[in-house]
Amino acid sequence: MSILQVLDLGLAILVLAIAGWTIAARELFASVVGYVAYGLLLSIVWIRLHAPDVALTEAAIGSGVTGVLLVTTGARLRGAGGVETAAPPRLSQRLMAGALAVLVAAALAAVVLLLPEPAPTLAPEAREGLAATGLGNPVTAVLIAYRSFDTMLEKVVLVLAVVGVWSLAPDRCWAGAPAPLGRARPEGALLFLDQALVPLGILVGVHLFWVGADEPGGAFQAGAILAAMWMIVMISRLTEPPRVGARWLRLALIAGPAVFLATGLAGGGMAGGFFAYPAGFAKPIILFIEAFLVLSIAVTLPMLVAGPPRRSPQS
Amino acid sequence: MSLALDLFSLVAIGAGAFFFFAGTVGLLRFPDSLTRLHALTKADNLGLGLIVLGLLPRAGSLLDALRLIAIWVLVQLSGAATAQLIGRALSPRRAAE
Amino acid sequence: MSASTLAGLVGAALVGLGLYGFIVSPQPLRKILAFNLIGNGAFLVFGIVARKGAAAGFPFDPVPQAMVITGIVVAFAASALAAALILRLQEETGNVLLDSDAPAKPPGDEAGAS
Question: Does domain C3-93 have CATH number 1.10.287.3510?
Answer without folding.
Answer: yes
